[in-house]
Amino acid sequence: MPDIMSETSTRRYWLMKSEPDVFSFSDLLKAPKKTTHWEGVRNYQARNFMRDLFQAGDGVLFYHSNAEPPGVAGVAEVVRAGYPDPDAFNPKSPYYDEAAHAKKVNPWIMVDVKAVKAFKTFVTREMLSAEPKLKEMMVLKKGSRLSVQPVTEAEFLAVTKLGS
DNA sequence: GCCAACGTTGGC
DNA sequence: GCCAACGTTGGC
Question: Which bases of chain B are under 7 A from a protein CB atom?
Answer without folding.
Answer: 4-9
